Amino acid sequence: MPTKRAPGLHEPDPLEKTVRTHRKRRKHHQDFSGSSITQNLVWIGSLGSLIVVPTIGGVFLGRWLDEIFASGLFWSISLMAGGLALGSWMAWRKVFGGGL
């Protein structure tokens, strides 16, 4: 024997449910996906330059000091590692600290 339902209450149409779900997802995506591909590429490029520039600077300064003091690769490797550490720290601050 079929059960009686209260007037006005009915099962939602599957199509209506699908459309409602799609609208919710679209609205959520529009609200929370703030950046475009171009903005992401710029972000990655700026982080890369924050790491690469101090590292390369350390290498050039180290090579110059190695030539002056005839110390092999001591200053080149040391200052490269220092530049890499500095650049990584600056990138970390930019991502998680809100700036330099």
Key features?
100 residues; mainly alpha; rod-shaped
- State Rg: 29 Å
Sheet with most strands = none
Q: Structural class, from secondary structure content?
A: mainly alpha
Percent range for β-strand residues: under 5%
Low-confidence stretches: none
String of helices and strands:
HHH
According to DSSP, the number of beta strands is 0
Overall 3D shape: rod-shaped
Helix content: over 70%
Total helices: the number is: 3
Distance between the termini: 72 Å
The residue-averaged pLDDT reads: 87
Indicate the topology.
Blueprint: H1 14-32, H2 37-69, H3 74-97
Helix pairs in contact: 2-3
Structure explained in plain terms:
The protein is an all-alpha fold and 100 residues long. It has a domain at 38-100. Helices cover 76% and strands 0% of the residues. The chain contains 3 helices and no strands. It has helices at residues 14-32, 37-69, 74-97. Helix 2 runs antiparallel to helix 3 (74-97). It starts with 13 loop residues before the first helix and ends with a helix.
Brief digest:
The protein is mainly α and 100 residues long.
